[in-house]
Amino acid sequence: MTEKQGNRPGLIRAVPVRHPGRWVAAAVIVVLAAMLVNNIVTNTAYNWAEQWKYFLSPPVLNGVRNTIWLTLVAMVGGVLFGIVLALMRLSPNPLMRGASWLYLWVFRGTPLYTQLLIWGNIGALFPKLGLGIPFGPEFVTAQTNALYSAAMAAALGLVLNEAAYMAEIIRAGILSVDPGQNEASQALGMTRMQTMRRVVLPQAMRVIVPPTGNEAISMLKNTSLVAAVPYLELTFTAQTIYASTYQVIPMLVMVCIWYLILSSLMMVGQYYLERHYARGSQQSRMGLRARMSRIGGAP
Amino acid sequence: MDEVTGEVMGEVMVKAEQVWKSFGQLEVLKGIDLEVRNGEVVCVIGPSGSGKSTFLRCLNHLEKINAGRLWVNGQLMGYRQRGDKLHELREKEVAAQRRDIGMVFQRFNLFPHMTALENVVEAPIRVKRQAKASAMERGRELLTRVGLGDRCDSYPSQLSGGQQQRVAIARALAMEPKLMLFDEPTSALDPELVGEVLGVMRELALDGMTMVVVTHEMGFAREVADRVVFMDGGVVVEEGPPSQVIGDPKHERTRAFLSRVLRPED
Ligand SMILES: Nc1ncnc2c1ncn2[C@@H]1O[C@H](COP(=O)(O)OP(=O)(O)O)[C@@H](O)[C@H]1O
Ligand SMILES: [Mg+2]
Q1: What global pTM score does this model have?
Q2: Torsions phi, psi of A290, nearest 5?
Q3: pLDDT above 90 (res A119)
Q4: Tell me: domain B12-262, CATH 1.10.3720.10, correct?
């Protein structure tokens, strides 16, 4: 070894490639940012004092609570029902597959806002709800509007819609798992349910969690559509406030700040969830920065 | 009924009678007859596409056969016979039959989200309902037996191919099978890792395990197999002791195959 080692040549000190484009872009961005800051500071229409007055007021906090609650219920319900729909689509039974396909076709093919309007007015379609034999006698009946609140209409509308999207995400996740995993667990004497729960779904999660996190963040924002029901979540609360104060822009900017706070918290949660389900994979050894940029949390 | 054959078979672990299997138009198995006695090691050799994997998968009912009968450990696999009518077994009953049959795959198929030890104890805990503590203790023993006592907490992605395959063997052994099926267990391994896996299999054979091994390792077949079966085109062309089938094959097809796979050291 040593006798073959020659004299070490001088270190390379090359002139780096110039990036004039970067300097131009930086200049443009600095100018735009300065204009924005100037606008925020000098434009009195933002009325920051008014915003701060309402930021932690009881109606706004109630709106925040309702938004969080709706997001949570809609996502949990959407995931659970989505699993059912996904398993139906993957079922060997053609009737199950067809029913699931039909459901997805309807709920993905019509606008969420329209669906929410329908769930808000469902009392007109089914004035009475009853428990009984189909086409036969009913044992219990009640007025729909007595049983059914705006909160239920909002949650129902969001869950049913979200389930259709989650079903496709979950199905893709299940299909991404190597069929050899199924065979290995069946060969060990595990049933199909055990295989699904212990082997396939935990691995599918790696594919399912990132888009589900994005769905949850979309859901946070889509809850604003339940003003169609109508239900007092964050945006609708702001509307009711500025209906009397006429401070439209301050209230809407304040609501945006609240949404940003909530979605940022969700991104942090998403990071830890993804890390948990990456156990045993190459990705689990990937750095934080790379992961955050993948979920859009950092540049 | 199953019991009748069980009594007749006595020390027979596997009995295949005219097993046929096709995928759509493609006929893969065309009447396989085979018997494996308790404690016997049978190596199945043959060209790629001859139906070796398919036959192994039929043995634990991962594939449904189209004709013939297949008994393992005295049980008719996948069916119950009443009179001359066959009734499909329910999923739970098929799963119960598979518990006694361990299988090792070419591509290991370890559960990547579980550590080596978790892989090994999963089925004993979930399927056999063993207590967690004792299953873990037994799992550690098994991993030690395949030379991986110090890698219990490693994930499969942190292990070499040879180590992964040894974990897979330990995982199958954890169910205390009466029969072990190996489908080309060393074909996906780098050459220098083949020996460690074959070593574990050799010891298993010496311990008296009944084994059906699909392999291209002629040296292993010669040394360990009690019997070698040569398959081609979905039929058993020739079978007998290794010295005969590998050393002095009767059939032209066997000779042609062996001339392609035998290396000087075999
Ligand atoms: N699930 C399947 N569907 C369709 N064809 C299959 C399937 N499994 C195996 N085959 C076909 O059956 C033949 C035998 O395959 P296989 O049993 O894997 O052979 P070997 O293990 O001897 O190489 C091949 O032609 C293969 O393409
Ligand atoms: Mg094969």
Answers
A1: 0.80
A2: -60, -40
A3: no
A4: no
Q: How far apart are CA B50 and CA B253, in angstroms?
A: 12
Min Cα–Cα distance to chain A from B124, Å:
9
**Whose CA is closest to B100, among B135, B73, B69, B68?**
B73
Parse chain B into domains and list their residue ranges.
12-262
Structure tokens at B138: 């037994």
Report the complex ipTM.
0.91
Asked if B91 has any chain A CB less than 8 Å from its own CB, the reply is yes
- Strands B67-72 and B75-76 come out as antiparallel
What's the confidence (pLDDT) of residue B2? 44
Residues of chain B predicted below pLDDT 50:
1-9
Q: Which residue in chain A has the smallest CA separation from B103?
A: A187
Residue B152 forms contact with A (CB below 8 Å):
no
Residue with tokens 């401070």: A247
Asked if the Cβ–Cβ distance from A189 to B103 is below 8 Å, we say no
Q: Is the CB of A98 inside 8 Å of chain B's CB atoms?
A: no
Task: Give dist(CA B55, CA B53) in Å, integer.
Answer: 5
pLDDT value at residue B264: 65
Q: Is B215 in the pocket of ligand 1 (CB under 6 A)?
A: no
In this prediction, residues A177-204 reach a mean pLDDT of 94
Predicted pLDDT of residue A8? 84
Q: Are A58 and A232 in contact (CB under 8 A)?
A: no
CA dist., res. A46 & res. A254, Å (int): 9
**For residue range A149-158, what is the model confidence (pLDDT) as tens digits?**
788 888 999 9
